[in-house]
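User: quick one - fold this with zinc ion bound?
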Amino acid sequence: MERCKQCETTVAKDDVNCVNCGSVVNSVKSKSNLSQHFGKVVTVLFALSAALTIAALFTNYVGSFVTLLAVTIALLMVKKSADEMSASRQ
Ligand SMILES: [Zn+2]
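Assistant: Sure. Structure tokens for the protein plus zinc ion:
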């Protein structure tokens, strides 16, 4: 059970504001969930793009190898900075 820092009222897990005094109780948590979600999305996109890059080595159907390689490297950098962001929050 979560408690309000201002008035010690028990608040629901999903409540952003305390029902008693209205102060914000869960903003930090929802922010870190968002960055974790963002990290997962980037990881999935990176895996997808890496797979397409490998596929592009064998076929021209999926697109240009150089373009896909550039996208994969860009996603790798985004993933790295997203990982650093979520690590610094803990
Ligand atoms: Zn309160």
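One thing worth noting: The longest strand covers residues 2-3.
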